Each structure stands twice: as structure tokens, then as C-alpha cells.
């Protein structure tokens, strides 16, 4: 969101959005907990930071396809085709798939789900939302990834939802509301209406 605000003229970096980004990061830190920041190995955290920056750059770069008249379907198809062309030689060289045992039906189904739902459909939705709602609104989903992971862990794996998890999700929710701006505008309208009624 910060990258979009700095690079794109129509994605203004307002104080509310800056505050929302800060709250979102704080919420993620609360969700992760202080125990994950020990150990002294910074590489995993730097890798996560690099992934977040890459995700932001992808959202900003993807906006140019709208100006070029490329449809979301064409953009998603090009993205998947290009990544396949780049990664297929690496996979063939490193994994030697012809030496691996024949996968089971469950494995084939899982891979098919990843291909169809988590990749093809996800990229189509990604570029569609990017074209309609803009990079800032699209990239709000990055704050929801740890929230969805925790909720899936509670619902599917039977994990326990702690007070820290609830607090972190609440802080992230406040950050998303600050970035979106509509709750603040609604509160200002309500306050202005109340003052108008008092004046009459």
C-alpha cells in the first residue's frame, strides 16, 4: 500500500492509510507473538519482508496492464504461462520427476485444486480486483492472510483461539478500516449531523 501510494498518482498516500498500515503491521506482530522473534536468525524474517515487497511491486506493476487495454483474463493467463515456462526447467532439473513414484489419487486431487482454485482462479480474481478497485484495496488482503490462517487452524485443526489472537485480529481490523477510510467518513457525517441537530 505504501509502495502504491508513492508510485501511483491515483493511489494517494493519506495519513489514514499510513496509520492503517502501521496498525496492520502491529496486529501481525501481536498475532505472531514475541516467541517467534527470538533465535537470532534474521533470514526467515528478511525473506518474509522480501515477499511482502515483491507482492506490493506486483500490484503496482499490474496496474499498467489496465492502461494497455489488457483484460484480467489475458493478464492471468500470461502470468501463469510465463511462470510455468520459467519454473518447468528448474523442476525437471532439480526434482527429476520421472524418478518419483506415481502419485496417489489424493495427491493428484490436491495438485488439481492448487492449479485450478489457488492459482488459475486466484490470479483471475487478483487482476480483476486490481483493475476495478486499485492496488491499495487489493493489497489489503495481505493483512488477512494470518487472520485466515488462524481461523482455519481453529476450525479445521481444532487449535485454540487465544486472547492474543483476538487482540491481533482486532488491531488488523482497525488498520483495514483506517486504510479504507469509509468508517471514518461515516463517523464524521454522524458527528456533523449531531452538531446540526443541536444547532437547530
From TrEMBL:
Residue spans crossing the bilayer: 18-37, 43-61, 73-92, 104-126, 138-157, 163-179
Domain EamA: 43-177
Protein location: Membrane
Membrane topology (UniProt): Multi-pass membrane protein
GO CC terms, sorted: membrane
Key words of the record: Membrane, Transmembrane, Transmembrane helix
Principal location: membrane
Cross-referenced SUPFAM superfamilies: Multidrug resistance efflux transporter EmrE
Keyword ATP-binding recorded: no
Name of the featured protein: EamA domain-containing protein
Amino acid at each position: 500500500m505504501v509502495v502504491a501510494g508513492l508510485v501511483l498518482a491515483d493511489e494517494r498516500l493519506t495519513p489514514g492509510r499510513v496509520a492503517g498500515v502501521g496498525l496492520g503491521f502491529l496486529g501481525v506482530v501481536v498475532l505472531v507473538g514475541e516467541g517467534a522473534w527470538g533465535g537470532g536468525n534474521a533470514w526467515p524474517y528478511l525473506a518474509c519482508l522480501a515477499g511482502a515487497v515483491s507482492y506490493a511491486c506486483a500490484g503496482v506493476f499490474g496496474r499498467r496492464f489496465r492502461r494497455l487495454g489488457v483484460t484480467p483474463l489475458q493478464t492471468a493467463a500470461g502470468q501463469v504461462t510465463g511462470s510455468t515456462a520459467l519454473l518447468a526447467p528448474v523442476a525437471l532439473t532439480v526434482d527429476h520427476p520421472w524418478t518419483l513414484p506415481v502419485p496417489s489419487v489424493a495427491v493428484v486431487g490436491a495438485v488439481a485444486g492448487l492449479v485450478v482454485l489457488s492459482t488459475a482462479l486466484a490470479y483471475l480474481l487478483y487482476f480483476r480486483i486490481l483493475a476495478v478497485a486499485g492496488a491499495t484495496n487489493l493489497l489489503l488482503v495481505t493483512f488477512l492472510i494470518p487472520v485466515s490462517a488462524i481461523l482455519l487452524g481453529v476450525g479445521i485443526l481444532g487449535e485454540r483461539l487465544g486472547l492474543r489472537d483476538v487482540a491481533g485480529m482486532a488491531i488488523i481490523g482497525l488498520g483495514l478500516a483506517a486504510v479504507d477510510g469509509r468508517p471514518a467518513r461515516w463517523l464524521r457525517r454522524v458527528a456533523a449531523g449531531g452538531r446540526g441537530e443541536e444547532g437547530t
